Amino acid sequence: MRPSHRAPDAMRPVSLQRNVARYAEGSCLVKFGETHVLCTASLEDKPPMWLRGQGKGWITAEYSMLPRATHTRTRRETTKPSGRTQEIQRLIGRSLRAVTNLPALGERQITIDCDVLQADGGTRTASITGAWVALHDCLKWMRGRSMIKDMPLTDHVAAVSCGIYQGVPVLDLDYAEDSTAHTDGNFVITGSGGLVEIQATAEGAVFSEEELTKLLDLARGGIKMLIELQKQAIEA
After folding, report:
1. 84 in a known ligand binding site
2. Is 2 within any annotated ligand binding site?
3. Does 154 count as an annotated binding residue?
4. What is the C-alpha separation between 75 and 67, in angstroms, rounded?
């Protein structure tokens, strides 16, 4: 029995609330159960220095946790981000760039900020899922002002965690499961089913190829639901 009493293939309640930040070109408050992340998209009318003059844009991401997003206070990362934070930032950026036609942006940069308000496992997967909505709305804002002709997004992208908890493959781990799972994985998948990234780690015991396949099957089911929620959110 999972601590949350969910079935192995059941997600936590998920919601995507748009337009929650007044000044951002795009924003989304994403909730995976008790994990809440505020995602904003900010447009800068120039690309990073190393990309200037190449006729294309860039999407980058920053990720952080509020000090009391967790059970005990975490110190703010006021100087250099930790290795974990840098890894998550790069993952979010890679995921969004995988489904964006960067030349169609022109010489511009969009920065996605993912701020974890409350953490209960799966903060990076919630961030990617909500960041896509924020990016979509930023691009829609740009098109509405004739800054771009067509929407540069080529597909949806979302992410979900899976793991082996007490010997059973389960979908969308909360903290109680994530902290004791024998295998922990994050799956980033596009709307058309393409794999952007798979991160899977044996925490307590090695896992087999068969178990990895089961986790991927669970992830695909969760991603299908998340993509549908994204579609409903942007059509609302």
Report:
1. yes
2. no
3. no
4. 6
